[in-house]
Amino acid sequence: MTASNKPKATGFRRIINASRYSKQGLVSALTHEAAFRQELALFLVSLPLAFWLSDSLWQGSLLVASLILVLIVELLNSAIEALVDRVSTQNHELSGRAKDMGSAAVLLSLLLAGTLWGAALWQKLMVA
Q1: pLDDT, tens digit, 9 for 90 and up, residues 29-64
Q2: pLDDT, average across residues 1-10
Q3: What is the CATH number of the domain that holds 109?
Q4: Is 109:73 a contact under the CB 8 Å cutoff?
Q5: Of the residues 39, 74, 81, 93, which is catalytic?
Q6: Is 74 noted as a catalytic residue in this protein?
Q7: Does 69 reside within a domain?
């Protein structure tokens, strides 16, 4: 059976399949992506700090969300890099541009997280 006429899973089976694929993606990122492992370690260390640092549940949630955003963007960047490398290992301007843009997205997510964490830290240490 080809991919085009393969029966699609529906209902609960689709949810089970999607969960399995998501788990495979996370395991792959942990196995093959050093940057993802580093950012996950940062997340795990920072998680309890977010609620110590924050003055409200909303502020703590925003700090945690900023770290989760970094992980999401890193996963997308890794997917772009893997796809580009799968298509061709030859240097090409568009391949380089795609990888550079993915990297820039990670940088912007880190800057956003750093700004939010810096503001929370400033409020905790200087204003209080």
Answers
A1: 999 999 999 999 999 999 999 989 998 999 999 999
A2: 68
A3: 1.10.287.3610
A4: yes
A5: 74
A6: yes
A7: yes
